[in-house]
Amino acid sequence: MTRILSLTLFLWCTLLVQGQEYDVVIKGGQVIDPKNNLNELLDVAVKDGKVAAVAANIPVSNATTVIQAQGLYVTPGLIDMHTHVFQGTDVDSYLANGLGSLPPDGFTFRAGVTTVVDAGTSGWRNFRQFKHQTIDQAQTRVLAFISIVGAGMYGRLEAQNLNDMDPVLTAFMIDLYSEHIVGVKKHHYRGDNFTPVERAVEAGNMAGVPVMVDFGEHDPMLSIKTLFLEKLRPGDIFTHTYSYTNNRETVVDENNQVKPFIFQAQKRGIIFDVGHGGGSFIWHQVVPSIKQGFLPDVISTDLHFWSMNAGMKDMTNLLSKFLNLGMTMEQVIGRSTWEPAQVIQRPQLGHLSPGAEADIAVFRLHEGDFGFMDARGRMMKGTQKLETELTLRAGKVVWDLNGLSVPAWDTEPLKY
Ligand SMILES: [Zn+2]
What we know:
Layout: H1 2-20, E1 24-33, E2 38-47, E3 50-55, E4 65-68, E5 73-76, E6 78-83, E7 113-119, H2 127-135, E8 141-147, H3 167-176, E9 181-186, H4 195-207, E10 211-213, H5 224-231, E11 237-238, H6 260-268, E12 271-272, H7 283-291, H8 305-308, H9 315-324, H10 329-334, H11 338-343, E13 360-373, E14 379-393, E15 396-400
Parallel strand pairs: 1-4, 1-5, 6-7, 7-8, 8-9, 9-10, 10-11, 11-12
Antiparallel strand pairs: 1-2, 2-3, 5-13, 13-14, 14-15
Helix pairs in contact: 3-4
């Protein structure tokens, strides 16, 4: 009996000691976690790669690393729901295994992003190559919409091939790799019909996943009202919301008014995604939309080689644009964390609930005189700009702009 009692006491003490030990504690930041309705000064503790606690005054005496985050914003690691990261060496390809896609780790952590969703760069023919080459090599969590085109986003020529748009094989591949594939993408089709959308929805129905539509290039132009109210299902995604091109009907009309059916479509459950990219974020569409209360459901970059060196830049620059248009920090963080997590049916992501994988971003909000470019080379002035101080992926510091997580160089002697 005494032995059992002392063993119980020993186990209890061990648990108590372990309970006080954290790998990382982020102290005193403004924690914004829309899923948990948090927007207050709190500490965040991490242990074994998971969020251990979010509370005031978490003791740090037994923490391995303490990060002082006073004056900073602490949020879930961002989810960028529209990117192109199937990088490779096929010089004939546009994005699939091509030079236009980017290796994720080089462009994510420095922008507070811990999860990217590749937007249809691969299709059922080359998804496995994408997995081996990118998903399995990246520290960034990489999920994917796969293209309804078997060849993925190889080129505009291949995107016209209705014979390569196979809903059965697409759904089969999603089923095989359901851990990584979150949906189906339709893109860059120029025909005057909805066939690729219908095929993508068919695959989506078979696999139980949403469809993301890039509706850019139909000739003659097709009605987005028909797309939203008749073709897509609630939960399906319209990306490149703020485009202004010849062959894509706009969301804002020539009198700068958001078209009434847009609100109707959003109410119906169509997800409006930003997908800034190299050509799909035009101030003349964005500014009236936000002013008239049409806010995007998800804020994403459409990251690729041509967008990141132009107006888009990165996720922090994009979030800053919406902050300067009057959206709150909670609104922009929600639309880049918990909202996309729900859209892609990954409720375990995009929040800081205890037990969740510790993907965390820490931002500084600068005040000053800044300029923000759209995709047509036009600039909007702003006074707020976000910068990523620190990013943790699964509890590990993977980006630390100012060395907040490490000791000063002269506080301890150098050792081999
Ligand atoms: Zn894209």
